[in-house]
Amino acid sequence: MDFQAYWLLALPVFFGLGWLAARVDIRHLLSESRALPASYFKGLNFLLNEQPDKAIESFIEVARAEQQTVELQFALGGLFRRRGEVDRATRMHQNLVERTDLGHQQRTDALYELAQDYLKAGLLDRAETLFLQLCDSDHEEEALRHLLDIFVTEKDWNKAIDTAQILSRKTGEDLTGDMANYYCEQATLAYTHSQMDEAHQHLVQALTLHRKCVRALILQGEWAWRAGKVEEACELWQSIEQVDPAYLFLVANSLTDAWRQQGRLVEGSILLRGWSERYPNIDLLSMTFQLVLEVHGGDEALRLVRAELERRPSLGSLDKFLEGQLVVVPVEQRQAVQLMRDIVHGHFERQSAYQCQRCGFKARSFHWHCPACGGWDTYPPRRQGESDWAQSPR
Ligand SMILES: [Zn+2]
């Protein structure tokens, strides 16, 4: 392309346009900064000097004086809730909800914040009302999750099941395990009110929804046992081997009682011994040890725990081995073995616990529902630290 002389004339025009644009921008910035109140800059200054409390007071002043600072009010409200100042958060969000000049989205956001304030304050009925209102808004999924938590806290299992179904349909999340637990809770409640048919129906619903619901099988077995249907109870508990054998330790003691009543302890001890070998679990080993001791005596019980110690060396199996030793050891050596056993047992008890996989909360006994994070089926069916020796390089 050839150079044209008139292009030189265009250059000053471009420079002029650039200068004009810069002036407009600077003027805009200056007018904006003049519009901001002094408290805003004071607040920023406090923030930069790491004085958050003074910064918050300055921002509150801004929010009070300048009604258009909606986002600032949202930020302050959220901050108050996080700091545990729920009353202040509630007042701030309530003011936003009551304002008539807010758009639909901002009002919905304010309602969602207010519902969370109520939840944090423990005002569950108010929070529930607001979250229900939010179920046809952009906050539907979060509202459903909060509602589910509220219904579980209130033990309103019918509503919890309905909400979990809606949430599952909406998000594609598999909540069948949780829902089966809700049915188990319902069944337990019905059972305590002697509503046997209803209790049974809830367990059938749990198993229809979640074929591998061990908890429902255990409950069915317990109730059959209490109703005197010992054979049926044994079948239900033994069926757990096909569903998930890791949970057999939860029924081993009940099965032993049933076998004792039926005069089938020898047969039972063989079954329990087989399970203990195939599905290693320190609690199951402990129950098997007691049964073998009762049926076959100390030498056989010691053989059982020695074989386990050789197969899977761990603090737990050493503890059981020493317990077995105590049964057969001559009286003059008993004190020394007892001392050793006490030390090992104390150490094992201190380090072994059931631990929630979701939040890490440790508990002495097994839980279907974590008391800390509220998760369902979050406890693996074995104690933590049970097989440390076997897993660590020696
Ligand atoms: Zn947990």
Description:
The protein is an all-alpha fold. It has 21 helices and two strands. It has helices at 7-35, 38-48, 52-65, 70-82, 86-98, 104-121, 124-133, 140-153, 157-171, 176-192, 196-209, 214-226, 230-238, 240-243, 252-262, 265-278, 282-296, 298-311, 315-328, 331-351, 388-391; strands at residues 354-355, 362-363. A hairpin with a 6-residue loop joins strand 1 (354-355) and strand 2 (362-363). The longest helix is centred in the first third of the chain and has 29 residues, at 7-35. The chain binds zinc ion.
Which terms would index this structure?
394 residues; mainly alpha; two-stranded antiparallel ribbon; 21 helices; disordered C terminus; binds zinc ion
What is the gist of this entry?
This protein has 394 residues and is mainly alpha-helical. Helices cover 73% and strands 1% of the residues. It has helices spanning 7-35, 38-48, 52-65, 70-82, 86-98, 104-121, 124-133, 140-153, 157-171, 176-192, 196-209, 214-226, 230-238, 240-243, 252-262, 265-278, 282-296, 298-311, 315-328, 331-351, 388-391, and strands at 354-355, 362-363.
